[in-house]
Prior knowledge:
Blueprint: H1 13-32, E1 36-37, E2 43-45, H2 46-54, H3 58-62, E3 66-68, E4 74-77, H4 82-91, H5 94-97, E5 101-110, E6 122-131, H6 136-152, E7 158-163, H7 170-183, H8 190-198, H9 209-215, H10 227-242, E8 248-249, E9 261-268, E10 277-283, H11 287-290, E11 298-304, H12 305-309, E12 322-326, H13 332-342, E13 348-350, H14 357-366, E14 371-375, H15 377-382, E15 384-389, E16 394-399
Parallel strand pairs: 1-5, 7-8, 12-13, 12-14
Antiparallel strand pairs: 2-4, 3-4, 5-6, 6-11, 7-9, 9-10, 10-11, 14-15, 15-16
The chain binds one RNA strand of 77 nucleotides through residues 3, 6, 57-59, 62-63, 80, 109, 111, 113-120, 123-127, 191, 207, 255-257, 266, 273-280, 302-308, 327, 356-366, 372, 374, 376-378, 386, 388, 390, 393, 395.
Amino acid sequence: xxxxxxxxxxxxxxxxxxxxYFINTATKIAQKYGFHFIxxxxxxxxxxxxxxxxxxxxxxxxxxxQFVDKGENDVCLRPEGTAGVVRAFVQKKLDxxxxxxxxxxxxxxxxxxxxxxxxxxxxxxxxxESFGVDxxxxxxxxxxxxxxxLSACGIGYRLQLNSLGDSNxxxxxxxxxxxxxxxxxDQICEDCLRRKNTNPxxxxxxxNSTCQSLxxxxxxxINQLCGDCQEDFEKLKSLLDKNSIAYEIDTNLxxxxxxxxxxxxxxxxxxxxxxxxxxxxxxYDRLVEFLDGRPTPAVGFAMGIERLMELIKMPEVExxxxxxxxxxxxAVDMVLQLTQKKRKTDKVTCDYKAKNLKxxxxxxxxxxxxxCCVIGENEMKSSTVWVKDLQxxxxxxxxxxxx
RNA sequence: GUGGGAUUAGCUCAGUUGGUUAGAGCACUGGUUUGUGGUGCCGGGGGUCACGGGUUCGAGCCCCGCAUCCCACCCCA
Length: 403
């Protein structure tokens, strides 16, 4: 038997119901917020991710499905969705067109990681990206959209919030932080030593308890934001307050992708194990120009669909459509004719074998049909079909032509 | 990539110190003597005990390897 590759799952039956229910729910909400669907390729030039996600990130450093194709192009299966959308935005010259452009997408992402619960090598994200709005109101709107989607699915969450500063205050802060790290260099873990050079901000969310006890004294960006960033962060908090969105400030929330600036947020669930982030996002005002576009403010988020699936509270399924069966072999032909007629307007299942009434009722019930329709000897004589409404428990007969 | 646990029917799981033909519940399927379901009764099919080696007279059970899943690290959606 050939099985699927490690960390790559099939989605079918009950899982598929939940999967599509989430996508449909999220799509409707994104459309209400004025977003439009965008589909971008699963395969992109490797350089795209190196320049956007960042070479210092684990995603690019060790988790990409990277290979050389038959045309000798260095390509990657996309590890996340934003880079491709930004690339498309620039390629279509929408940066030069000006105005506001809002997109949502959903699809498979690939990261070569060790699989566990909530962490797959091929997984699916639903995400949105907004281009051309520098107002922090848009940041707040993004967060509220995530909250709307989660609420619509009956999912509880905690929202964690931070500001990563911008090109005015971040470099200054980074220097301060590196000086601080230098002062405790002999006591921190190997990973942190590496991070000091590659991406010093990342030491802050190191899980090592010795490191954490040292970093308590580390300078905090939140205290060194420039006027602009500080103002936006305060405004964001007040907007969330006014719209009844609860949040926690997490000064160690850094996010693993290098392109974020200012607003960074993460929605987490306490009910799905250690892979608890169910949505994450933030502002990335510099990314469009990193990818050769005209500087364009942007903000977005992505949600991990597989992590959400087991949290979704599905609506109760109601009885729907018809089940049609025969009690005599002679009536089976008529079953198929009536089935095909009814399928023009309704969901219909039918049985090709003659059975007694009890078995048909059982089968109709199992198919979750609203109406059980049976043709037996009596019905054939009178050209009628016997119908029972399994929900209202009423029954009646209809002429074939009335059915 | 590192460490730990698990793997027996479609699913959830029993399986004694190594000893006949590996079990249960659910699910599936058939019947239930003249046409009433979701909730009665009786029957039936279905297992290379993940896979590959080894020890033994004999292995689902012990040993080694390997694959996958789960947990933690790591990372993040």
